[in-house]
């Protein structure tokens, strides 16, 4: 019986010729800022609405709050917007405002510094004792006091960054220790008066040009011109690098808004005593520190560490140095703020830096828009926030509200700011922008 075997020959595999069509090239990413600017005014309005809905409130609540505060107390007193009262507010905000600038740096790391009131007190005590009792040159006394503040900050930063002690514990210990040192430096007298007509005395009482109105207008016009020049140069530089740049229409609008504010401020100040030196120093420090945070690699490192320590470390950032340096800056700013408070009250005493100085400074930074959770904020927050705090305090004083009630109202405003910050962060996370 024969069997026919059929050999199955496998057909050779057919290879498809490679497609001659080129692979699709992904569309280049478009910067959303370009889309906004190309749409003109409608684009900016839509972008503003989107930011509000996603929780990016910026300075809007603070500005609205200032307008509301001014309107309420002006209606109650009739003289809240008086030129002398507004000038006094610009003087009173400087001391705690400078402390708040230092707190902004610490908050950007997501940390807190509870010792800054005591640092302000001990620095003022050192300057007062050296200049008034020991006869040391005032400028040298100021430098020694500021150096002491920076050294204290370095010590706090070392224990926090190198040893690993929580910042809350380190600075709480500092609050007690430096308060004790302040009392020890002042001794049995308990106070050290400023030198009459000296450098420290002039810090809070000197008006540029002895009240000459031309000086105020010169500073206002110079500030507007420098802002415009900076905006134009930045726009040209970014355009040359192929980066999104602000159009001249936006630059003109920004400059116009600043001009209105500067001209109104100059007019009001000239109705009183002219341009106060403390306000010039405060604004100068805010501008410089804002530049450091936004325009330097060191500032970007601070935001990076505040955003995530491990990610910052893997990016090659010296996390320990950033942490130590931030505490040095905050303590140095507290020392400078202490000198202005000393000048304002005419002496350094055991109570300087105590009470609500620290709480008002922290509240100013938070109310101004700096997040308690780190990674978000600017030094302009300190200026806006302390304006809110001092406006409330001044207004309540004008209507003769008890100080206990003032503390309660300030605490409520601080709580509202923190709640707003928390809700804002939650909204940004839910919209994919957190």
TrEMBL record:
Glycoprotein among keywords: no
Origin superkingdom: Bacteria
Subcellular location(s) per record: Cell membrane
Swiss-Prot/TrEMBL keywords: Cell inner membrane, Cell membrane, Membrane, Sugar transport, Transmembrane, Transmembrane helix, Transport
Major localisation: membrane
Keyword Disulfide bond recorded: no
Alphabetized GO MF terms: transmembrane transporter activity
Region feature Disordered, mapped onto this chain: 1-27
Cellular component terms per the entry's GO annotation: plasma membrane
Transmembrane segments: 57-77, 89-109, 116-133, 139-156, 163-181, 213-230, 251-269, 275-293, 320-342, 354-373, 380-399, 405-423
Pfam family, one: BPD_transp_2
Bilayer topology annotation: Multi-pass membrane protein
Functional summary from the UniProt entry: Part of the binding-protein-dependent transport system for D-xylose. Probably responsible for the translocation of the substrate across the membrane.
Protein name: Xylose transport system permease protein XylH
Organism: Kitasatospora indigofera
